[in-house]
Amino acid sequence: VTAAGDTAQTITRGTTSFKFAAVSAAFHLAGRIAPVETLTTNWRTHGGVQALCSHVIRAMCRRFPGAVEKLPEERAHFAGPPPVCLATADLDAAAQLLFTGEDSVIESSANHLTELGAHQCVFVRRADSRAKLPAEFLSSMCFTVEEGKGLEFADVVAANFFTDSDAKPAEWEAVLSGWGHQDEDAANDDHVLLSAGAGARDPLVSAEREAVMLEEIKLLYVLCTRAKRRLIFVESDDRARAVFFDAARRAGLTTARLPPGGARFAEASTAEEWRARGASLLSDQKTYVAAATCFRNAGDVVGWLRATAEARRARAVAAGPAATAATRDIDFDGAARCHLMHAAAVAAPAIGGGKGGGSGSAAELCGAIVKAAYCLHRLRRHNAAAAALELVGCRCAAAVCYLHAAVAANDDNAEEGTAGTAAASLAAASAALRGNGSAYATQSTELSMAAAAGGRGAAGGGGGR
């Protein structure tokens, strides 16, 4: 068994105290020796980004000495430019600079990009921060830090991370106060880390605020480690950005300007690059929305329908108690429609617009129909769900849906009018089971009898469940 990871990236609630020493101890109790090896060479990120990441780790250790395992400092194998802290009037001005390489607005042209490339993305502090982004950022891949954990990109734009942070500027000042005021050797000395007055824990700060500050600096670290080549911070609030921008500049970790020459930051990508990125993002429900963006930018109708359907279904399923039934139903309805259109596009190239249509497998087709049936079932449109399931040979599941429809009809809650009577649904369930083979002959016969005798009872409201 090999376990690998970075304890400074434990940002999931309830995992912030995880340490590899605990894993080693578990093997020791089982009579095995599990040595912990430390990897100190970073082959992914260059020295410019790695220097900032290392300083974030130092700040974390100074302020929260027991929160992460103290390890030898990681070094980058490659040299590279420092991250950029752009101080612009607002996010629109930052987008203008990143997409055109110019400070002033220029006329639209064929060379003006409308989104970042497939190897570039935007990170925000929270989901509702997306609504504040310029159109250029919204048409690009956009993640919260939690959604993007585990992913990596050539270029990352951190938009309003500090503006939308749960930590106050004064709290960030307490965490980053050591930057630029101590030499590197002292920063790596455990004794200094535990006793430095600037970073020591303030006894007047509540445990709740300490937890918030620890979570925020870990989120900052995870965000920084997503970038392999270029990392850009843009902030719209002067006061919120001042602490980090000043501390990073004081420590020589960042620059305030993009490389000279007027070259734009945004890069164009091919349809194949977008399609490949979208396919990779379909493996995690947290990134379905970004996958849909990729397929849209690739012009892949089938992929966009699939990712959009998955995103809406996942959102409906994950909706908490605060969500209303109407809100969930809107997402389930949208997901059902997209799943069915996805199935149609897979089956017919003409529907897919010639871009991916008709190229899917039978498994993809059946999967889309079954997922549509699930959404229809959750919408209490049981007969429609059953009909979809019968299309792909899932007769037992179809029978269950027909039985649900019968119960709903018997309770005068049929959503399909007179065609959704209990007798008709029971008969359909019987037919579905008969079609599934002789193993269900007994159940099928009983259902047929119930359908024949139960219609009158259902009409009178006396049928049993």
Automatic annotation (TrEMBL):
This is Uncharacterized protein. InterPro entries: P-loop_NTPase (IPR027417), TRANK1 (IPR039904). SUPFAM superfamilies: P-loop containing nucleoside triphosphate hydrolases (SSF52540). The lineage of its organism: Eukaryota, Viridiplantae, Chlorophyta, Mamiellophyceae, Mamiellales. It comes from Mantoniella antarctica.
